[in-house]
Amino acid sequence: MSTPAGPPTAADAASTSLPGTGITVALFATCVNDTLFPGTPKAVVTVLERLGCRVVFPREQTCCGQMFTNTGYFDEALPSVRAYAKAFADYDYIVGPSGSCVGAVRDQHPMLARRTGDPGLVVASERVAARTLDLSEFLVDVLGVTDVGASFPHRVTYHPTCHSLRVTRVGDRPFRLLRAVRGLDLVDLPEAEQCCGFGGTFSLKNADVSVAMANDKADNVVSTGAEYVVAGDNSCLLNIGGVLARRRSSVTPIHLAEILASTEEAAS
Amino acid sequence: MNARDEILARTRAALADVTPSDADVQVPWTYGQPVEVGDVLATFVERVEDYRATVVRCAASELPAAIAAGLKFTGTDKAVVPTGLDPEWLSAATGVRFVSEDAGQLGNDDLNRLDGVVTAAAVGIAETGTIVLDHGPGQGRRALTLVPDRHVCVITAEQVVSGVPEAVARLRPSIAARRPLTWISGPSATSDIELSRVEGVHGPRQLYVIVVG
Amino acid sequence: MSEQTHQRLTPAPPSGQLIDSPRFPVAAKHELGNAQQRANLRHATHTIRDKRARVVGELDNWEQLRLAGEAIKNKVLRNLPDHLVRLEASLTANGATVHWARDAAEANRIVVGLVQATGSHEVVKVKSMATQEIELNEALEDAGIAAWETDLAELIVQLGHDRPSHILVPAIHRNRTEVRDIFREEMGRYGTPAPPDLDDNPANLANAARGHLRDKFMRAKVAVSGANFAIADTGSLVVVESEGNGRMCLTLPDTLISVVGVEKVLPSFDDLEVFLQLLPRSSTAERMNPYTSIWSGRREGDGPQDVHVVLLDNGRTRALADREGRQALRCIRCSACLNICPVFEKVGGHAYGSVYPGPIGAILNPQIRGTASEVDRSLPFASTLCGACGDVCPVRIPIPELLVHLRHEVVEAKKADHGVHLPHAEPLMMRSGGWVMGDHRRLEAAQRASTLGGGLLGRFTDHLGPLPWPLSAWTSARDVPTPPTETFREWWRRVRGDDPGPAASGDTPAGHTPEETR
To answer: How far is Cα of residue C462 from the mean position of the Cα atoms in its chain?
Structure first.
C-alpha cells in the first residue's frame, strides 16, 4: 500500500507532470467493498495517488441502495440516495470500483429522487450521478491513461460483469488497462458476457437457478487455465469465487483495481 | 356499453396522462430510401441462393429456354399457368403439360395433383433475397404458388430493388388496389427442431428463380 | 376424426390452469432437474444467439431501425383509440367483419360462434400467441370443434399433450428424438400417420408433418390466425412465417378468423419497411423469413371470402394505463429476449406459467393478468437484471427497468396485504436495512458486527460454510470469505485521519441489527 497523503512535499512538487495532478477524487468505496473487501478501495487509493490525484473519502457515504431498489423497495432506497447526494455534493469526480454501484447511482438515483417530488433532491441526485464514474472510466477517459504502472506476472481471465457491460457500459476500458499491465497474460473467457447468476437478491430468491448459472461461469473460468479471475465488481466475484472455493479450485478472484495497484516493488 | 365502446373507453382512460405533445411522436426515420448493397442484381442472386433456391440469369430472348430448363431441373411434369402469363414464355417447354388457372374451376385438390407453377413477380429485394408477388397478371391467385411443390419464378432486372424500404414503396400501388402480397424468401423452411433450418415443409419445396436482363 | 378413444377431438393438454402455476422459483427448481431439457435449451438458445448476432451485424443502421421501431410503436400506443378506429374502418371497407373482445371469454365466444355459423367441426390454425393466450383451442374443443395446430412446433406441442415453452419455437425444449417418438405415437390417432420407419432426421420429421397436415389443409373450411401487424391505413393484416402452413390457412379455407391484440396496429403500410427488417433478424435470425402474407380483407376470387377480425383487449388496456409498463406493449413477439436470457436458458418456458415466458413474459404477464396470482407476483423477480434482454430488444423495451418497476408494484401489493396476512420478513428487513444506510454512523455500527465476527472466525478459517437463513440459500453451494477485521473506513480513519468533508456530529448510533443480505 502507498503511504498516506500528507501535507505537500518536495516529491509532490516534482510530480506536477502526473496525469492526475491537481485533480481531487472523492472515493465511493461502496458498502460491500467497505465492509467485506477493503483491499479494493485501498487499491483504488494506491492507483489514483500513484497517478497524482488527491483522494478523499467522504465519510458520510453509505451505499448506492441498489439492493433495495432492485428488490422493489423504492422507499427503503431513498435514505441511501439522500446520503449519497449529501456526501458527494461538493466533488467534481466521484470514483467507485464497481460498475454495478456506479450504474445504480447513474441510472436509478434520479428516478428514485423524482418519485419523491422533492425538486432539491432531484437536482442534487442528477448532479452527483453525472459526476460518478467507474474506476476504469476515470482512468481511461479523465486521466487518459491505460498504463498505470502496474505489474502482475500472472495468467488472468476477465469476466466483464453485466452491470459494467450493460448498465455503466465501461466497454473495452478494462481490457485496455489489463493489456498494459506488465507481465500479465490475459486469456479469453468463454461465454464471457453471460451473467454469473448473482443478481443481488436473485441469488437468494432464485437460489437454484443462480447456482446453476454460477456453476456454468465457474466451469468457463476453470477452462481457461487462469490463476486469477478478474472483474470490476466484487459482488460478482463473491459469487464466482464462492463456487470456486467450494470446489477447492485454485483460481483466485481478484478485483481489477487490485491488479492495477500491483507493482514489482509491492510484489517483492 | 358494447365491447367496442368499452375497449375504446378503457383505452382513452388508460392514456389520460398523455398530452397532445406526448402523443405527437416524431419517427426518426426517412422512408423509402435505398440501402447500400453494392451490385443490386449480384447481391439478389447471392442472397436468394443463400436460401438454397436455384437462381439463373438470362437475356429476354433466352427466357423460354430458361423456363423450359427450370421446369426440367425441378422435375415438373404438370404445371399450372396463371392468367395473364405471356404464352410465349412457355413455348420451349415441350415436354410439360400446362393447365391454365382460368380453365374451369381448379379446386385445392386439383392444384394438389399438379406438381409445379410458372409465374412472374412484382418486386425483388436484393438485400434479403426476397421475391414479392402481388398476385397481378401472370402471378396467379395465392393458392397457385402454394399448393404445387415446385415454383419457377421469373423476375426482371428492373423489378429488383436494393432493400426492404424501396420494395415497400414500390408495392404501395398494389396494396392500394387491395391486392394481397406474398413475400417469398427461398423455399418453405422450418427451424422448429433444435433451431436448425430445414428446407421444405408445406409451401413449394423447390424455388427456381430466373432473373431476366 | 373417428380415431379417438375419448370424447376429445384433439390431444388433451396437461391438466390445470396456467394462472395456477407455482411460483417461479418452485417451478424453476423442477425444470432444472430435467437434464435433457437443459441440454436441448442450451443447444438451441446458443445456436440462435450466434445467428442473430451475425445477421444483425450485417446492418450498419440497426440502431436507427430500433429507434424507428420504438418511435412508431410509441406513436401507435399514445394514439391507440384513433388508430383502432381507423383500422376498423379500413378493414370494414375491405369487406372484413370486425369484432371486439374485452377478454378471453368474449373472444372465445365470438370465434366459437363464427365457426358454428359455418357448420364446420374443425379449424386449421396458424401459430398465434393471442389464441394461445386466450386458450381458444380448449374453448373450441368444448364446443365440439377440433382445432388443428399447423406450425411444426405447435404440432409437436399439441401431439405431445404439452404446453408451448417459447414464443417463436414452442417445442424448443424437445430434441429431434423426442419429436420422432411423439410423431410415431400420436399422428395416426388424429389423421395421417407418420411413416413407420420415421427416423429423427429433422428433414424427415418436417416431411412427416407435411404428410400429416396436407389432408387437413385440403379439406379445411375454416382457419384461425393471429397477425403480426394490423395496418390501419390500408386495412391489411400481416402474418410472418416460415413453413407455408400460414399461407395454407390464410389462402385455402372459405372462412378466415384472425384474433389480433389491440396493440398490433401500425399506422401505415409504409411502417412495414422498419418492422420487416427488425422482426426476422431478431426472431429466426434470418435476413427475411421464408413467407410473409399480407391481405386486405376479402379479395374476390382469391382466398377466404368470409373474413373476420377479432380485436382483443384481455388486459392490454390495463398495461396501457401504466406509464412505465405500457412500453411492454411495443413487443413484436420476436423472442430475442428469451434466446439471450441466461435464466430462460436454464429453466425453459414452462417455469413462467404463461404462454409468454422469458424476460418479456416476466414484464407482460403481471401487467395483463395482474399481480393477484402467486406466479405473476414471482415473475418480475425471475431475472438477474443482467440487461442482455434490453440490449437485443428490436423495439428497445427497457426490460430490466420494467422488471424493477414491477418488482416495486409487487412489493407495494405485498405491503398492502399486511392488513390480512402475517407480515413478511422481507419488508421488515428492507426497512431496517434502508434505515441503516440512511446515515453513515448507523452503517458503521452495523459494520462492527461484521468485523467482530471476522475477528472471531478469522482465527479458525478464511472461508465460511453454511450460514443461517436467509443466507443459507447462498451458502448451499458457495463458500463465503470470512469478513475482514477492519473495514475500509476504519482503515482510512486510522491511517489518514478524518476526511476533509463536512464534519460528523458525534451522537450515538441506534442499536440496530445489520441486514447485509445483498
So the answer is: 43
E-assigned strand segments in C325-430: none
Q: What is the pLDDT of residues C251-288, one digit of tens each?
A: 999 999 999 999 999 999 999 999 999 999 999 999 99
Physical contact, C and B (3 or more Cβ pairs within 8 A): yes
Cα distances from C248 to residues C125, C215, C504, in angstroms, run 10, 11, 76
Give the residue from C239, C298, C97, C227 showing the smallest Cα distance to B178.
C298
B115 interface with C at CB cutoff 8 Å: no
Residues 335-354 of chain C with CB under 8 A from chain A are 342-343, 346-347
Nearest to A255 by CA among A123, A130, A142, A158: A158
Domain count, chain B: 1
Q: Which DSSP helix (H) or strand (E) runs through B124?
A: strand B123-125
Answer yes or no: is C455 within a domain: yes
Full residue range of the structural domain in which residue B154 is found: 36-212
Q: Are C493 and C473 in contact (CB under 8 A)?
A: no
Of the candidate ranges A178-182, A234-238, C431-435, C475-479, the one whose mean pLDDT is the lowest: C475-479
Q: Starting at the edge strand that comes first in sequence, how are the strands of the sheet with C236-241 ordered?
A: B160-161, B123-125, B130-133, B181-184, C291-295, C236-241, C229-231, C265-266
3-state secondary structure of C187: helix
CATH of residue A223's domain is 3.40.50
Domain boundary (C168, C190, C220) is at C220
Residue B110: pLDDT over 50 = yes
Helix-helix angle C35-57:C272-283, to 10 degrees: 140
Number of domains in chain C: 2
Residues of A in contact with C491 (CB under 8 A): 38, 42
| Total-model pTM | 0.94
Domain enclosing residue A63, as ranges: 10-142
Question: Rounded mean pLDDT of C184-192?
Answer: 96
Q: Judge if A208 and A133 occupy the same domain.
A: no
pLDDT tens for A116-151 read 999 999 999 999 999 999 999 999 999 999 999 999
**Those residues with Cβ within 8 angstroms of residue A7's Cβ, 6 or more apart along the chain or in another chain:** none
C-alpha cell at B174: 398494389
Domain match, A32 and A116 both: yes
CA dist., res. C124 & res. C213, Å (int): 9
B90 and B144 Cβ atoms separated by less than 8 Å? no
> Cα separation of A2 and B155, whole Å?
75
- The cell for B213 is 436482363
- Whether residue A257 is found in the same domain as residue A197: yes
Average pLDDT, chain A: 94
Cell numbers found for residue B48: 436468394
Residue A1 falls inside a structural domain:
no
Residue A240 banded pLDDT, cuts 50, 70, 90:
very high
User: Are residues A15 and A132 part of one domain?
Assistant: yes
Asked whether residue C356 carries a pLDDT value surpassing 90, the answer given is yes
Whether residue C386 lies inside any domain: the answer is no
**Are B182 and C291 in contact (CB < 8 Å)?**
yes
Task: Taking residues C363-369, report their average pLDDT.
Answer: 97
Confirm if C127 and C153 have CB atoms less than 8 A apart.
yes
Q: Does B82 touch chain C (CB under 8 A)?
A: no
CB contacts of C480 in chain A (<8 Å) are 238, 242
Q: Which amino acid is at C214?
A: R
Q: Is the pLDDT of residue B49 over 70?
A: yes
User: What integer pLDDT is reported at residue C421 of this predicted model?
Assistant: 53
DSSP-derived letter for residue C233 is T
What confidence score (pLDDT) does residue A267 get?
61
**In the predicted model, what is the mean pLDDT of residues A10-16?**
52
Question: Is the pLDDT confidence value at C515 over 50?
Answer: no
With left for phi above 0 and alpha for psi between -120 and 50, is residue B81 left, alpha or beta? beta
C206, B201 in Cβ contact below 8 A? Answer: yes
The grid coordinates listed for B176 are 392500394
CA distance B91 to B68: 8
